């Protein structure tokens, strides 16, 4: 399945409304579920207002945080207190303000070497999943929240990267493509979610978004599929008035 097939699209007026809409969607998804609810978080700037919305007291009170497990789709290989850390951003915007049990927060380790960290995180994911191989009928995550960079990258899968072809390892170290090494889940693991959710905003991403949605293989976000449903949450600036929500 490619990003171009079986996708649902919601276009919201602006980034603030987008964040509120996705927060409400997530609250409803958690409320409708039973048992553990696992979410893979993205980093960068786009999800920050969403995390802040989820931490607002009235909304946070509607979430059974004891069932929520937080993972990350990718991480910069920097200490957890480094300003570039995806974990630190989520902690400051949300985790520090909600009653989630500490044991339910599963950041990507950033000690040792990047390769060791990738191996350790794959172990963490497999232990949570209670399986060594992904079964497409039993997704690892309830929700995998993804973003897209201006170059079309998603998680830490960059255009032309060897990591895009990885089908066996669940997590890989990406070295030499960015100033700092990255740790990223690979495509089959990113796809293993009941809902793979892209949140993309801003006029500067119109062009890569259009290519991703057309399934352009040179745009990593366009290579992501979902073992469940694929949802694009967009603001009008990135949709550019050109997106038919039924596409
Ligand atoms: O490097 C990253 O970038 C993407 C996109 O970030 P944004 O700032 O353009 O929203 C993000 O999805 C990814 O998790 C992050 O590590």
Automatic annotation (TrEMBL):
Pathway involvement of the protein, from the record: Carbohydrate degradation; pentose phosphate pathway; D-ribulose 5-phosphate from D-glucose 6-phosphate (oxidative stage): step 2/3
Reaction it catalyzes: 6-phospho-D-glucono-1,5-lactone + H2O = 6-phospho-D-gluconate + H(+)
Domain Glucosamine/galactosamine-6-phosphate isomerase as annotated: residue spans: 13-232
Highest rank taxon of the organism: Bacteria
Protein family per UniProt: Belongs to the glucosamine/galactosamine-6-phosphate isomerase family. 6-phosphogluconolactonase subfamily.
Enzyme Commission (EC) number: 3.1.1.31
Any GO molecular function: 6-phosphogluconolactonase activity
Name of the protein in question: 6-phosphogluconolactonase
Cited SUPFAM superfamilies: NagB/RpiA/CoA transferase-like
Lineage: Bacteria, Pseudomonadati, Pseudomonadota, Betaproteobacteria, Burkholderiales
Pfam families tied to this protein: Glucosamine_iso (PF01182)
Top-level enzyme category: hydrolase
Keywords, comma-separated and alphabetical: Hydrolase
PANTHER family in the record: 6-PHOSPHOGLUCONOLACTONASE (PTHR11054:SF0)
Biological processes per GO annotation: carbohydrate metabolic process; pentose-phosphate shunt
Functional description taken from the UniProt entry: Hydrolysis of 6-phosphogluconolactone to 6-phosphogluconate.
NCBIfam families: pgl (TIGR01198)
């Amino acid at each position: 399945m490619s990003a171009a097939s079986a996708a649902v699209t919601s276009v919201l007026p602006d980034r603030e409304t987008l964040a509120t809409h996705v927060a409400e969607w997530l609250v409803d998804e958690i409320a409708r579920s039973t048992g553990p609810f696992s979410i893979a978080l993205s980093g960068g700037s786009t999800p920050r207002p969403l995390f802040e919305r989820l931490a607002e007291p009235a909304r946070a009170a509607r979430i059974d945080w004891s069932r929520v497990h937080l993972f990350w789709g990718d991480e910069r290989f920097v200490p957890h207190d480094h300003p570039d850390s995806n974990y630190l951003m989520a902690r400051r915007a949300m985790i520090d303000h909600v009653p989630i049990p500490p044991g339910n927060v599963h950041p990507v380790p950033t000690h040792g070497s990047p390769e060791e960290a990738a191996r350790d995180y794959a172990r963490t994911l497999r232990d949570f999943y209670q399986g060594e191989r992904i079964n497409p009928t039993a997704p690892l995550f309830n929700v995998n929240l993804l973003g897209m960079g201006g170059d079309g990258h998603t998680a830490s899968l960059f255009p032309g990267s060897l990591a895009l072809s990885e089908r066996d390892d669940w997590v890989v170290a990406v070295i030499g493509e960015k100033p700092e090494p990255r740790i990223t889940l690979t495509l089959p693991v990113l796809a293993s979610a009941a809902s793979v959710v892209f949140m993309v905003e801003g006029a500067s991403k119109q062009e890569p978004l259009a290519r991703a949605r057309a399934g352009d293989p040179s745009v990593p976000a366009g290579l992501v599929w979902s073992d469940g449903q694929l949802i694009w949450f967009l603001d009008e600036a990135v949709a550019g008035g050109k997106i038919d929500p039924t596409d």
